[in-house]
Design a protein that fits this description.
Elements lengths: L12 H12 L5 H7 E7 L2 E6 L1 H6 L9 E6 L2 E5 L2 H4 L8 H8 L4
Antiparallel strand pairs: 1-2, 2-3, 3-4
């Protein structure tokens, strides 16, 4: 998988929906996302979210994150290439977009 993969969660759609449901029902803040993700600014409007090293070692195969590409516009996350953000019937922010929005310097 590369950082240009249009659909990094392909084949894991049902897992992505379950993980998103759990994430939306928890009150997460920047500290939680900082422990789970590594943030890499690709350009002015794109951030890559990869699993943090510690999280990658401890999570089960079901919980494992892959690298996602989040688009920023106007100072907030507006799109993500994960399955959850691409569903036409539910365009609410995904956990990757919420993590970028929670970042104090993005």
């Amino acid at each position: 998988m590369t950082d240009t993969d249009a659909d990094p969660g392909r084949g894991r759609e049902h897992i992505e929906v379950l993980r998103e449901t759990v994430d939306r029902n928890r009150d997460r803040d920047w500290a939680d996302y900082r422990e789970r993700f590594s943030f890499t600014v690709v350009d002015d409007g794109t951030v890559l979210l990869s699993p943090a090293d510690a999280a990658a070692e401890t999570e089960s195969a079901v919980e494992r994150e892959v690298t996602h590409r989040v688009t920023i516009d106007g100072g907030s996350a507006v799109d993500c290439n994960c399955h959850v953000a691409q569903r036409p019937f539910d365009r609410r922010a995904c956990r990757h977009m919420r993590a970028v929005d929670a970042h104090p310097r993005l």
